[in-house]
Every structure is written in structure tokens, then in C-alpha cells.
Design brief:
By secondary structure, the chain is an alpha/beta fold. 26% of the residues lie in helices and 29% in strands. The chain has 2 domains: 14-58 and 114-181 and 278-327, FAD/NAD(P)-binding domain (3-Layer(bba) Sandwich); 63-110 and 185-274, D-Amino Acid Oxidase, Chain A, domain 2. A hairpin with a 2-residue loop joins strand 9 (135-141) and strand 10 (144-149). The longest helix is centred in the C-terminal third of the chain and has 19 residues, at 309-327. The protein is globular and about 60 Å long.
């Protein structure tokens, strides 16, 4: 094959030639970048596409627990990410009655703005090629699949495709792989700067935020990710306002109240949908076309706390293994 210059994005470059790629991955979040890294290291030619340029912000709790950290180790990025992350002493989970349980282990926080960029850089260092651009469709093609990119006349051809578009199901719907469905939950967060010192991830099911849950995750140097989520209730159908739950948590949960008394919000409150319990699994798979999906687009986020980074990375690893086997 003709070598591809990683800085060459011209439409007439080898990047767009027939059968240039073994795998086209749509979505460069934790699932997509993890899959790209493992596939590239296995010797496959991988093109990673995302509608955003990196680094880019992503609404998230920014917490990494054991599943994510183990994935980082297997990806060979442990030292680099640990140096960038903020290490914590443990995890504390509060029950509605105020009692709590402490969990020991290795826990980090790392803002997604930095985490996703570092994972993408790891994939590129392994040999994957990244191209920012909006994918409008994926279908059968002469080489296996064709990926249509907005603003580009000729499709990108690859032997297989992996869809890792996060909570966004729009591409799967256009491909006829899934029906429209509401998200499993809605979550929102802001960043707080405070003089309070805390060394634990805190997840709360305190009465102040029921029927939702909330979190306080230290990021280091007095910066915190503070947010709340609501599962299973659609706004406008008897569900409380997520904004009201967030305010109730800040006023009613002792640590949150102290945090705000000695600090202030330093970012807007932003929200994002969550997809959990494998609720986004494609209804009609296309094994012959070698089109797979992984990450939150198939509902891999953990329903208990809304943690999605590790589960997305694990599913990206699994998808990479399946594609590696299929392509050999």
C-alpha cells in the first residue's frame, strides 16, 4: 500500500483512495480512540473521524475508576495519563439517610478536554490517522464499506467500520440500525472553585437530590466537577426539574453547601444525555458489512452512577478484538 502522510488531508491524497483503510472509526471519544489504538498496534490501517477538532470539551463527571484505569494500562498510556490526572484517596457513596460507604482503590479525575485529547494522541502515535469532519452516512461499498463525509464528494472506502458516536444515535438512525429512543438519563455539571479541601470522589443519593443522584469530584487546586443526574423520568412527564434538583443538592447536602459557601461556580451549568443498560443496541446488525458499534451509542454507561468512560473504553477494546479477528 502507498504510505499515507499523516498531515495530508487533500481529497486527492491516498487518504481517499479505494481500499486505503482497514477500519474507519466514526467518533474519537474514549471508545473510538481506544479501538483505534489497539487496531493500529495490531497492524491495521485505521482512519479515525470526528465532527469536532481536538481538544474539545465534553460534558462529563471527569472521574476515572478502576475499569478506565485498567484500560489505560492495557493501552500503554498509564504513565502519561497518571501524570496529567489528579489522584484521589477513594470513593464515598452516600445513601438517602445520610449514611455512607467508603471504597478504596485507585481513582483519578481528568477533565475530558484533556483526557480525550490524550487518548486520541495515543491512537495517532500507534499509527491511526485522525481526520475532523462530519460523517453523514455509512453503507456498503466495493472495499467493504463507504463512509460519506460532509463537503467531500467521493466516499472514504474501508474494509469495515466502527460507530462510536457517544450518546448521539442520529447516524445509526439514518442507517436504519435503530429506532428513535429517549436517553436513559440526563445529567448536568458545572465547575466550582473553592477553598474546601477534599480527596475523595463523592457520589450522593442524599434525600436532597432524590429521585436523582449527584456527585462532587475534586480536580485539584481547589477545582471541582459538581453535577447531578436523573434516570428513568422524562422531563415534562411528572419528573422534577434537573435544575431544581441541582440547586436542592447545593443547598441540602453538607459538603456541597460548604463547597459553595467557600467558593463559586466558574463555568456554566451544562447538560448531556446518558445511554445505559445497552438500551442503544442496534436492532438490525450488518455482520456481512462489517459494521459494528461500541461505547455509549449502544448504551454502555453504568446505570448506578452514570460512569461511562471505562465502559466505553472496554467496549472499544472488545470491538477492536473482533475486527482484528475478522480482518485477518
Amino acid at each position: 500500500m502507498v504510505p499515507v502522510d499523516p498531515t495530508d488531508s487533500r481529497v486527492d491524497s491516498p487518504l481517499f483512495s479505494a481500499a486505503a483503510w482497514d477500519v474507519a472509526i466514526i467518533g474519537a471519544g474514549p471508545a473510538g480512540s481506544t479501538a483505534a489504538l489497539h487496531l493500529a498496534r495490531a497492524g491495521h490501517r485505521v482512519l479515525l473521524l470526528d465532527r469536532k477538532s481536538f481538544p474539545r470539551e465534553k460534558v462529563c463527571g471527569d472521574g476515572l475508576i478502576r475499569d478506565a484505569i485498567e484500560c489505560v494500562k492495557r493501552a500503554g498510556l498509564y504513565d502519561e495519563l497518571k501524570a496529567a490526572a489528579h489522584p484521589l484517596e477513594g470513593l464515598r457513596v452516600y445513601a438517602p439517610n445520610g449514611l455512607y460507604a467508603d471504597f478504596s482503590g485507585e481513582f483519578w479525575t481528568l477533565e475530558r478536554l484533556r483526557l480525550d485529547h490524550l487518548l486520541l494522541r495515543g491512537a495517532m502515535a500507534a499509527g491511526a490517522r485522525f481526520l475532523p469532519g462530519e460523517v453523514t452516512g455509512v453503507g456498503l461499498g466495493g472495499a467493504g464499506v463507504e463512509v460519506a463525509l460532509k463537503g467531500i464528494g467521493a466516499p472514504i472506502e474501508a474494509r469495515s467500520a466502527l460507530l462510536t458516536t457517544g450518546a448521539d444515535l442520529s447516524l445509526l438512525r439514518r442507517m436504519g440500525l435503530t429506532a428513535p429512543s429517549p436517553p436513559s438519563a440526563i445529567a448536568m455539571r458545572c465547575y466550582v472553585q473553592s477553598k474546601v479541601e477534599s480527596r475523595r470522589l463523592v457520589v450522593s443519593f442524599d434525600g436532597s437530590c432524590l429521585p436523582g443522584y449527584a456527585w462532587i469530584f475534586p480536580l485539584g487546586q481547589g477545582r471541582y466537577n459538581v453535577g447531578c443526574g436523573l434516570f428513568g423520568l422524562a422531563p415534562g412527564h411528572g419528573a422534577p426539574s434537573l435544575q431544581a434538583l441541582f440547586n436542592s443538592f447545593l443547598e441540602g447536602f453538607p459538603l456541597a453547601r460548604e463547597l459553595m459557601a467557600k467558593g463559586e461556580r466558574v463555568s456554566p451549568l451544562k447538560g448531556s444525555p446518558l445511554r445505559c443498560g445497552l438500551e442503544g443496541m442496534p436492532e438490525r446488525c450488518r455482520p456481512a458489512a462489517r459494521i459494528l458499534a461500541a461505547g455509549e451509542v449502544i448504551g454502555t454507561t453504568f446505570p448506578f452512577t452514570g460512569e461511562g468512560i471505562g465502559k466505553a473504553m472496554e467496549s472499544g477494546e472488545l470491538a477492536a478484538g473482533l475486527l482484528d479477528e475478522a480482518l485477518r
